[in-house]
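Task card 7
Instruction: Convert sequence to structure tokens.
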Amino acid sequence: MSSASYLTLLQEGRLEARVEELERLLERCTVCPRDCFNNRLNNEIAACYSGRLPIVSSYTAHFGEEPPLVGTKGAGNIFFGNCNLRCVYCQNYQISQTHKQQIKNEVTHERLAEMMLELQSRGCHNINFVSPTHFAPQMARSILIAARQGLQAPIVYNTNAYDAVPVLKLLDGIVDVYLPDLKYADDESGYLYSKVSGYQEFSRAALREMFNQTGDELVFDDDGLLKRGLVVRLLVLPNDIGSISESIEWIRDELSPRVAISLMAQYYPTHQAETNKRYVLLSRRIRESEWMKATTALEELGMEEGWVQEFDGAAYYYRPDFNDSETPFKDIRDFGT
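Output:
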């Protein structure tokens, strides 16, 4: 197993200070761009319905992620409860938007560390934190505890991209792989469909910071497993909500055409998108023509790295209960062959 970057901070005696800086942000919570200013250290509940302790809905070896994260023994996924977004089509809404139930899943930092070590002992190739934004300080504290007990697996930060740049700067050297899901190219969609302001500004600033830390190079070990880098996920939504082509063009022009893209076809209407007429544009699966428009944009805009889900067999890999051994992704350069 490849050693992770946070071990360098630990060996240099800098990891604990970094964790403490992150935890201070909880006193007047500015952990995400919502800037609630609640004192979560005193267990005041912020807009994400979260307080001092992390909430873990489930943790498991997961086999539906991108191939270099899955390997042969799976990604070590830890699904945090609650979320700083309120996506009306969230495929994990039973976890992200049921805070009264999720409070029962509060765990100590020590228990979260134990989960990481257990996943590592089961052979998982990384620790993949799903929806970590609102628990970034708690995540870092638990990594510190686990690292002192032998954790070596790379850390994957699997986020909705509505992240605060100061937090990401403090995660530099703690997180090995950034896996943001860039949802929209405009603020209007972010407000209507995810209930947050300034999504375009904050998500793009977050991606710039992630890129500043990793560059456009993906670093693999001898077994082809991803050790370090940035992979931007783009979920194709019906009726071109989110403006995939515009996001791809921005990534190419503002970051690099070599930034790895993971294009996803797995959308299906659920939660409010399935029943609320206000969100009728999201009330169906994507059409093949919409999918082909998105894949064509990747080619025409010259993106060089990444993975594409196969349209016909797109698996709902983001669901915690999905545990298929077949990854639904193909390399961008092999797509269509």
